[in-house]
Amino acid sequence: MGLFQVANNGTFFLDEIAEISTAIQTKLLRVLQEGEIRRVGETQVRKVDVRIIAATNKHLTEEVKAGRFREDLYYRLNVITVQLPSLRERRKDIPLLAQHFLTKYAKKSGKKILGFSSVAMDSMMRHPWPGNVRELENTVERAVVLARGSEIELEDLRIPQTADDLFEPGLTLREVERRLVLKTLSEMDGNRSKAAEALGVSRRWLQYQLKEWGEKE
Fold it and tell me: Do 153 and 147 form a contact (C-beta atoms < 8 A)?
């Protein structure tokens, strides 16, 4: 039995629907239009009644215009559309999701990591997460591997930062200074001596600022 036959009278979830080939699109369209399948290697046609839920991170209308996705299949699938906001549009979910992934991978690796430092969490809250939840999960998994203490530190995350992160409108000079320090520290893989040298400040000054921001030694 194939997946459609197993899913008969149930629900079939198709992830990354925009990535399927044109040949598979044609076969899928027949299933949706006729409610029929034919198993590989046989001639008998079988009826199936399956509800389809499909997901994609692409704009299917643009894929149709580009000729990469069949227009008729698009309209067969597009009965009810649910738009899920990106992670950067629901930043309040980041701490909850990050802690969930931390618990998952800490248990898997056998490490006792309880949470994130305030600076690490702040960095995650400001990151745009172009890869959405999957990127967040991969970042936390990597951080668990790299972590040496009971908390995930900024240098464990290895989150790239851009100039836009530093100088977005409405920031105080103090906040810009803090972001610049944290960005430099991240680029130096957490080495505070190198970060202080790159910033043109003393290591003692850097240590004091990090302590004020809640970053542990």
Answer: yes
Hey, CA dihedral for 19, 23, 26, 27, is it positive or negative?
negative
Q: Give yes or no: residues 36 and 117 share one domain.
A: no
Please give the C-alpha separations between residue 200 and each of 175, 188, 193, in angstroms, as whole numbers: 18, 14, 11
pLDDT digit string (tens) for 156-204? Answer: 988 866 555 556 666 678 877 887 887 788 777 778 888 888 888 898 8
Q: Are 21 and 60 in contact (CB under 8 A)?
A: no
- Same domain (yes/no): 72, 169: no
Cα 202 from chain centroid (whole Å):
37
| Residue 21's CATH number | 3.40.50.300
**What digits encode the pLDDT tens for the residues 42-60?**
899 999 999 999 999 888 9
- Phi, psi dihedral angles at 196 (to 5 degrees): -60, -40
